[in-house]
Design brief:
Layout (H helix, E strand, L loop, with lengths): L5 H24 L2 H8 L3 H7 L3 H25 L4 H8 L3 H19 L4 H19 L5 H13 L1
Length: 153
Amino acid sequence: MPTPSRRDRTTELIREAAVLEFTSSGARSLSLHQVATRAFVSVGAVYQRWAAKDDCVAEIVRDVLPATVSKLTEPWAAGLPIADISHLQLTSSDHLHGLRLLTECLLAARDTESLAPIAIDATQRFTAAVRDRFIPHPHRDSVAWWVVSTRLG
């Protein structure tokens, strides 16, 4: 297996730093200067990758969000017992980071019309996975009605 080039490693560092910065500060407060600081690269290297902050946010929502939803729902798709998921998976920092990333992507998509379909699709896939895993099929409607009626009643 060939070793990645220095440019590939730098690109990966910048991308990881951008995702971390986006997750911690959100789309509106995202700073490409902070991305450079996190990645330990020059600001110029970051601007070579993205001309503007909006380009960075769009790439995160377009490329990272679908993968994050898949990663979050993997344990459920594998059919792990609910106790195992809640104890081992949802409390892990990876999953908490994934949920935070999902939230920030949805907020970013609210402000950018072209990102909305991606965010809607990811949200629907995540919601369907949660519903399919935690609410048995014959009881979905009655459980949903009970939750709605107890919240509103």
